[in-house]
Every structure is written in C-alpha cells, then in structure tokens.
Specification:
Layout (H helix, E strand, L loop, with lengths): L8 E2 L11 E7 L7 E2 L3 E6 L4 E5 L2 E5 L4 E4 L5 E5 L7 E10 L1 H10 L7 H6 L4 E3 L1 H14 L4 H17 L3 E3 L11 H16 L7 H7 L4 H12 L3 H19 L4 H7 L5 H12 L3 H30 L3 E5 L2 E5 L1
Parallel strand pairs: 1-3
Antiparallel strand pairs: 2-9, 4-7, 4-9, 5-6, 5-8, 7-10, 10-11, 12-13
C-alpha cells in the first residue's frame, strides 16, 4: 500500500471536455490512492484524517489542512490511519494541470513566469504551512464552486499566492530518483494512440487486448492499474471529448457526430454525453458557440485597446461598443 516493490504505478489523468485543468475530490480508500505518478502537477489538500505521506523519498505525517504540491512524475501517496472497513468521503481535494498548460500561458503572458520558481521546486514536492496553507485551501475550494473563466482565474491566483509565500518547505531530496515504469507508460501511450485512430469504429476491449498481445483479463487489469479507469469508461470519455470538438468546430448534424465518434446509436450517445457534460449535445453546441463568440469579441476588444494605447490614444467603451479618441 505504501510503496510498491515494482515501483510506482502510472496514472493516466483524464480531463473533462473543454477543461484546461482538472479539479476533483477523492474518497478513501480509493483505486487511485496508491503509490503512483503522472506527468501533471498536482496540488493536494487533505480535508479529513491523518496519517503518513510518501513524496519521492520523503516520509512524513499529514493531518487535515495539509497542502502539498507535487511536480511531474514525482511519485506520491497518502495513507490514512483508519480502522479496517472504514470509508472516508471527500478525504482529498486536488487540482492537476499539465506542464504544457503553464508553459503556454507563460509564452502568451510573460507575467505568469513569476510562478516559475514554484514549478521548479515542485519537482521535489512542496508542503505549505501557516497562512499559505489556509489561503491555498480556501482558493482550492472556491475553484470547485465555479466554472469556466472564473475557475481558470482562481487557479492562477492560487499559484501566485503559493509562489510568493515563504511558508513552505521542500520534501524529497534533490538527488532522489525512482524511475517510473517507462515500459508501462509507453504501452499506455500506444493504447491511447490505437483508440484515437479507431475511435469511429466499434472497438472492444478484446480488440485492444489482441492488438497488444495480451489476454482480455490481463489487458483489463493492466489498463485499470495504469490509468485508474476501466476500459469502457475511458473509451466513452475519449469519444465524448472528440464529440465536443466536432460540435464546437463544425456544423455537422448531431447524428453524424454520434456515429463519427463510435457510438452505435443516438440514444446511447445522448446518454453518455449528458452523463459526462451535464447537458445534451445540441444544447452543448449552443452554449459552446455562444461562449466562443464572446471570447472572440473580448479578443477584438483587447486588440483594439492595445492598438489605441500604442498610438497614444485614449480608449473607452461606450454604449455602442469600443471607441478611441485623442
């Protein structure tokens, strides 16, 4: 439970449709509560229970309010001291985001580079304490209560507050090395590539197992152990994510989107889409395109403002839209 003798398990993080990062809560025990690693950063808050945490080669205690940031591929696990058979709801609250997500933000907005030292330290694991932990926990909870742009703004506010705080300590030693199971990770990447290539087809677990030279039970266990998701559940998420892209980027009828993403009937497509996105495909398209239009208008407004300021003009927004003047 604490540390696998065969090394940490690889976890595949599955983001929701149109999400740039992932916010979640976990119960304990949970399939994902194990000695594992993933390529994403993770800010992890303990809400309930105490116990031992394992971050790289660090072993320490945790209690409610414990806030830790782990960097890409740094193995980690939190083991709660609970009675056999006990079940704890919402033990953890966390956000996970890719390195490319923040690097792209830095390239677009140089101000974001202020969090670079925080990301560098996260390679060894960072534990926050005092006001930093309290503020971090508060903003992390707020992220779970909002959506869309507000959620994104809160994430950067959270990272900034943690970046400027001195109330933190590094956990794992700088010479720590526990090489992840690269063979398993490479196989999982190949599996994902296989599914993406065949997403419009009627793909079954038996097809993937045969393609990768495994029996069905062996492949099923391998996939669940290394991704934290069952094969059918993950495939449905991939298909819904692809459907979201098609609904936003094309005017194809919903029926065409259904079959192009591998669903064999419209009722199942609608059911899976509503389950993951919270609304039917046609309504999702209306919301998504309306939000895209608003984003385009905001981008144009920002570009006009930049151009006006560059030419020494004053800029104001009147009742009929944006205006410039001397």
């Amino acid at each position: 439970m604490k540390r696998s003798r065969t090394g940490p398990d690889f976890e595949l993080i599955v983001g929701g449709p149109q999400e740039s990062f992932r916010w979640n809560v976990h119960a304990y025990p949970h399939d994902l509560a194990k000695w594992h690693y993933h390529p994403e950063y993770e800010l992890h808050l303990i809400q309930h229970t105490s116990g031992k945490m394992f971050i790289g080669d660090h072993v320490g205690s945790f209690a409610p309010g414990s806030l830790v940031l782990t960097g890409p591929n740094l193995p980690h696990n939190w083991v709660s001291d609970i009675a056999p058979g006990e079940y704890v709801r919402n033990r953890d609250m966390l956000v996970q985001f890719k390195d490319s997500f923040v690097r792209d933000a830095m390239a677009m907005w140089p101000e974001v580079k202020e969090i670079e030292p925080l990301l560098q330290d996260a390679r060894y694991g960072i534990e926050f304490h005092g006001d930093a932990a309290l503020v971090g926990a508060n903003v992390l909870r707020q992220i779970g209560q909002v959506t869309a742009m507000r959620r994104l703004l809160l994430l950067f506010e959270l990272l900034y507050e943690l970046a400027i705080s001195p109330e933190r300590r590094l956990l794992s030693s700088r010479d720590y090395s526990d090489a992840p199971d690269s063979a398993a990770a490479d196989t999982i990447k190949q599996v994902i590539g296989f599914l993406m290539k065949n997403i419009a087809k009627d793909v079954h677990l038996s097809d993937a197992a045969r393609w990768f030279g495994m029996s069905e039970p062996t492949f099923s266990r391998f996939f669940k152990r290394n991704t934290g998701h069952g094969f059918v559940h993950y495939l449905n998420r991939m298909r819904v994510n692809r459907a979201c892209d098609l609904l936003m980027e094309t005017d194809k009828p919903v029926t065409d989107v259904c079959f192009e993403t591998g669903f064999n009937n419209l009722s199942n497509f609608n059911r899976q889409f509503r389950k993951l996105c919270g609304l039917p495909p046609s309504e999702y398209r209306r919301h998504a395109k309306r939000n895209m239009q608003k984003s385009t208008e905001l981008y144009r407004f920002d570009e006009e403002m930049r151009a006006a300021l560059a030419h020494g003009q004053t800029f104001y927004e009147g009742s009929s839209g944006a205006n410039v003047g001397r």
